UniProtKB/TrEMBL annotation:
Domain of life: Bacteria
Signal peptide: none
Protein name, UniProt field: LytTR family transcriptional regulator
Stored SMART domains: LytTR (SM00850)
One Pfam family it belongs to: LytTR
Domain HTH LytTR-type intervals: 1-79
Amino acid sequence: MFSPYIDIHTNSEKITLRKKISEIEKILPSKYFVRCHRSYIVNVKYVKSILKNSVLLENGIEIPISKGKYEEINDSFINYICE
């Protein structure tokens, strides 16, 4: 079921907005934020490693990666590291 709300998790808080994830995706800088799943956008700055089917964040949370998104998130992560 579609929810009109989106949760944004920061280092210090959780913010709930009444927006579509696609609207949030458009305003975030693509250099740092990548949509890895239809329900998740991650900041590559906080990615610890990329596994076969998920992204492991520095805080230990594992976020799923859609099959078609693996290459995009991997490239974004490598580009961030090589800066």
